[in-house]
């Protein structure tokens, strides 16, 4: 067993009286794709928010390379190699796709300090490689408000990749995609496998089974099972959560 | 399509170039037409255009709706007023800062003073966002206003006047045309700087924060620091404008920082086009022009201006600058 | 001691007036998402209408409905003609439009009433002072305090206990849902805006006999009202109440006591100048302190 890269240790978060993260422990090894599934409202997005530092947990710790993150700002966590995508694309609508990626490159110090980043050919070329990796080759000059939903999801991925993450937190990358777009996204993620560890929050089981090395099931803020695809499919608790009360 | 930017950029600089030529020609033409007051009027427009352009860095580029920029404008004005009167009296300000009647030094002092004020107010106000930010900037500006009303040593309510404009090299600053050209020079310099800023990595990231703060945080940008920096730069520009305005009339009073002044700056930016380089200046010319026109017609001109502003807010999108720069977002 | 208590009452009296304004402002923001700079103009309209009513009828009692009705009608007209078009707009458009409204209102008042301030007599019935044991306190100011507290109580009941209040609370968070349930939200908004206007007008007409009724009176108090709303927490009526009392007390006591305290420490004219400056800035400093500790105000409405 490889040494885990990201460790979530006994994390707790309450919103008012509601416990949305209930002693969650989870780990992610280098290069691994660990899928996190569970019914709506199970606390998956909240968990990503806590790992990134958007939301402060009430108790527990998150470690990257055995370094605790809880005191670090979001910017510091990004510098240490965390990146995320958003379920509803959170992209810069007035900019071109290329400028969206350039922003992420600039944020980690790439590019010339003197040139206009929009006229900096080197930076643009660098941005284009990430657009290409996310399946958006040739769309760099398009204004984001003119991109289709599926393309925005791909752009989310390109931006996240441009920060050069070691750990990528993907919040439902398949949500809202058509069958062809899903297949394309699965292909894109598969190519990235091994280079970057991914925590994949996803409802699309086809994608999960196609990609995940391990799967954890989160229900009402608690992890009820972790294992391989076959183990999860056979797990009685999971069947109950999904077929009994859940809305999968 | 190969280089979509070259054409609009050329087009974007053509009209300002023409405008610059017209401005350069204005003082002699006004003299020839027997309208010397026009020179002072246009100087005022340029100075307020500088203030509006400064506000635009916070508002147009950073999306920060400050209703308190009159404070920085006024502080810049008072920096000039205080240093100039101390120079005339020969006594140092606060006991150790010597007075000065050099324009270059006093503009520098105005930049520093307004920058420090903007740094403090910005650090507090930026802890909030949205409507609270609007209210807080307004409230802090009001606090500064009352501070200067209470400063009886510097004229309190009535303000103070000084005898001569600050000197620059060997220019005859008494001459309104000379001061016109000096103001034009400062404005041009400022606009060149803000164009540089808009097309810099800072400008790109700041614009990103305006569109989605959450996105920018997720790629590791310290959004608070960037907004704060934009606010400080913006406040400094407003202070520079105030310093010129103090020189124009050789007079400063708390009226400079009256809250309606902040409102007018906002109007200029929006009227001309937020986020553009020349829009705010255009907006200043349009608003002051309109005010002067209405005022020559009736004493109660605000009864027309008010509804016009309402109509503008309800119907007018993008500002004057967009009229000939359709689709060129930045 | 008597002096301190008297100034405390003055502070509370100022506080409840601020509350009447802040409640409308914070409701309009909290429910409709609109920043209304012209809220102070409604205060001015109430004051002028009541002053005119008092002048024409000679009775302060008859002037009260004049002020309330005028402010309410002005508010509803404002909502119907302008503000309703601002709900979907960004804050910048709201600021510009309502700034334009201020210019219009101020100039309209100048055209109708001139630039000279109007003075309103305290009604004879309320003009005396009530002996409170330690000191005598003006009956009129006591009435303001009681009326303000009554309004606050009424507002709490309205929001907590009535169908309208339920819609208000629901409408703030689930605008679309309330609409989907068949409630005419436009009418609800007009009524609510009118209610805020009536409260502002009430504050204005009560202020009439204490201050001079003049153009610009609305903006002075509007900015203080902003301070109240920021301190209390945007959108929270309870926050507006406590914020208003805090601002009223701080402002009044600084103005009342600071000059004497400073005069003990330095010479007279310097002390007065310094005290004047500090007391004018006092409430803003309190606001800065609150912001440092709690950026969302003392009673944040959500989250």
How would you describe this structure to a colleague?
The complex is a heterotrimer of chains A (248), B (330) and C (303). Helix content of chain A is 36%, strand content 25%. Chain A is globular and about 55 Å long. In chain A, the strands form two sheets. Chain A has a six-stranded mixed sheet with strand order 6-7-8-3-9-10, sandwiched between helices. In chain A, strand 9 and strand 10 form a beta hairpin. Chain B has a domain of 223 residues. Chain B contains twelve helices and two strands; from the N terminus they run H-H-H-H-H-E-H-H-H-H-E-H-H-H. Chain B has a two-stranded antiparallel ribbon. In chain B, helix 3 runs parallel beside helix 5, helix 7 crosses helix 9 and helix 10 crosses helix 11. Chain B is globular. Chain C is mainly alpha-helical. Chain C has one domain. Chain C contains eleven helices and two strands. In chain C, strands 1-2 form a two-stranded antiparallel ribbon. Chains in contact: A-B, B-C. The interface between B and C is large, with 43 and 47 residues.
Task: Supply the key terms.
heterotrimer; A: 248 residues; alpha/beta; Rossmann fold; 2 domains; six-stranded mixed β-sheet; four-stranded antiparallel β-sheet; 36% helix; B: 330 residues; mainly alpha; two-stranded antiparallel sheet; 12 helices; 2 strands; 1% strand; disordered N terminus
Spans of chain A of at least 5 consecutive residues whose pLDDT stays below 50 are: none
Please count the helical segments of chain B: 12
- Helical residue percent band of chain A: 25-40%
What is the name of the CATH architecture of the largest domain in chain A?
A: 3-Layer(aba) Sandwich
So what's the overall shape of chain B? Answer: globular
- Count of folded domains of chain A: 2
Q: Report the order of strands and helices of chain B.
A: HHHHHEHHHHEHHH
Portion of residues within helices of chain B: over 70%
CATH class designation of the largest domain in chain A: Alpha Beta
């Amino acid at each position: 067993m490889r040494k885990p890269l990201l460790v979530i240790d006994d994390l707790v978060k309450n919103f008012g009286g509601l416990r949305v993260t209930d002693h969650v422990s989870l780990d992610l090894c280098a290069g691994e794709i660990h899928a996190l599934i569970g019914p709506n409202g199970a606390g998956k997005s909240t968990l990503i928010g806590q790992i990134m530092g958007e939301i402060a947990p009430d108790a527990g710790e998150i470690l990257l390379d055995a370094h605790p993150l809880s005191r670090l700002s979001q910017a510091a966590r990004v510098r240490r190699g965390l990146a995320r995508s958003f379920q509803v694309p959170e992209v810069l609508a007035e900019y071109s796709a290329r400028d969206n990626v350039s922003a992420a490159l600039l944020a980690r110090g790439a590019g010339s300090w003197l040139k206009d980043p929009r006229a900096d050919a080197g930076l643009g070329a660098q941005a284009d490689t990430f657009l290409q990796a996310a399946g958006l080759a040739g769309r760099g000059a398009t204004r984001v408000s003119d991109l289709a939903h599926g393309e925005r999801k791909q752009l989310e991925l390109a931006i996240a990749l441009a920060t050069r993450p070691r750990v990528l937190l993907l919040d439902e990358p398949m949500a809202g995609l058509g069958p062809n777009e899903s297949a394309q996204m699965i292909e894109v993620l598969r190519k990235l496998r091994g280079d970057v560890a991914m925590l994949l929050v996803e409802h699309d089981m086809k994608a999960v089974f196609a990609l995940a090395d391990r799967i954890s099931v989160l229900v009402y803020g608690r992890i009820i099972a972790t294992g391989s695809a076959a183990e999860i499919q056979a797990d009685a608790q999971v069947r109950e959560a999904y077929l009994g009360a859940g809305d999968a | 399509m190969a280089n979509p930017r070259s054409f609009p950029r050329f087009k974007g600089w053509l009209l300002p170039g023409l405008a610059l030529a017209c401005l350069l020609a204005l003082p002699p033409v006004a003299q020839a037409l027997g309208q010397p007051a026009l020179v002072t009027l246009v100087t005022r427009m340029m100075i307020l255009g500088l203030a509006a352009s400064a506000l635009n860095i916070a508002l147009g580029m950073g999306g920060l709706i400050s209703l308190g920029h009159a404070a920085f404008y006024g502080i810049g004005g008072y920096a000039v007023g205080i240093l100039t009167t101390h120079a005339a009296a020969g006594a140092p300000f606060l006991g150790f800062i010597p007075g000065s009647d050099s324009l270059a030094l006093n503009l520098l002092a105005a930049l520093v003073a307004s920058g420090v004020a903007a740094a403090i107010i910005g650090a507090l106000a930026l802890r909030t966002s949205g409507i609270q930010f609007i209210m807080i900037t307004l409230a802090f500006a009001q606090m500064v206003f009352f501070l200067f009303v209470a400063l009886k040593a510097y004229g309190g309510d009535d303000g103070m006047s000084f005898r001569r404009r600050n000197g620059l090299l060997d220019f005859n600053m008494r001459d309104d045309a000379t001061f016109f050209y000096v103001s034009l020079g400062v404005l041009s310099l400022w606009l060149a700087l803000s164009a540089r800023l808009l097309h810099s990595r800072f400008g790109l990231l700041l614009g990103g924060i305006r569109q989605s703060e959450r996105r920018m945080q997720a790629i590791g940008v310290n959004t608070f620091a960037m907004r704060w920096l934009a606010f400080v730069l913006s406040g400094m520009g407003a202070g520079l404008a105030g310093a010129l305005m103090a020189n124009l009339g050789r007079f400063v009073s708390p009226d400079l920082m009256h809250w309606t002044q902040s409102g007018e700056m906002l109007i200029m930016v929006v009227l001309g086009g937020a986020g553009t380089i020349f829009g705010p200046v255009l907006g200043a010319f349009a608003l002051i022009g309109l005010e002067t026109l209405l005022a020559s017609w009736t004493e109660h001109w605000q009864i027309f201006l008010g509804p016009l502003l309402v109509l503008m807010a309800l119907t007018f999108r993008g500002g004057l600058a967009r009229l000939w720069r359709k689709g060129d977002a930045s | 001691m008597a002096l301190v208590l008297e100034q405390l009452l003055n502070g509370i009296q100022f506080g409840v007036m601020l509350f009447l304004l802040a409640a409308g402002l914070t409701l309009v923001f909290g429910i409709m998402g609109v920043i209304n700079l012209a809220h102070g103009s409604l205060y001015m309209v109430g004051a002028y209408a009541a002053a005119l009513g008092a002048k024409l009828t000679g009775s302060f009692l008859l002037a009260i409905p004049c002020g309330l009705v005028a402010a309410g009608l002005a508010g509803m007209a404002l909502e119907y003609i302008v503000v309703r078009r601002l709900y979907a707009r960004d804050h910048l458009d709201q600021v510009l439009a309502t700034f334009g409204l201020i210019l219009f209102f101020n100039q309209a008042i100048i055209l109708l009433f001139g630039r000279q301030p109007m003075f309103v007599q305290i009604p004879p019935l309320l003009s005396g002072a009530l002996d409170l044991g330690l000191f005598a306190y003006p009956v009129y100011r006591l009435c303001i305090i009681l009326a303000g507290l009554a309004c606050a109580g009424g507002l709490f009941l309205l929001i907590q206990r009535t169908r309208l209040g339920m819609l208000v609370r629901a409408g703030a968070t689930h605008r679309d849902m309330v609409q989907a349930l068949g409630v005419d939200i436009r009418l609800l908004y007009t009524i609510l805006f009118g209610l805020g206007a009536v409260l502002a007008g009430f504050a204005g007409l009560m202020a009439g006999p204490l201050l001079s009724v003049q153009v610009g009176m609305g903006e002075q108090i509007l900015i203080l009202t902003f301070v109240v709303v920021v301190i209390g927490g945007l959108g929270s009526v309870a926050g507006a109440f406590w914020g208003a009392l805090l601002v009223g007390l701080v402002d009044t006591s600084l103005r009342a006591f600071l000059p004497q305290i400073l005069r003990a420490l330095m010479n007279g004219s310097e002390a007065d100048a310094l005290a004047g400056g500090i007391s004018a800035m006092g409430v803003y400093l309190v606001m800065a302190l609150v912001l440092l500790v709690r950026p969302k105000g003392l009673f944040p409405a959500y989250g």
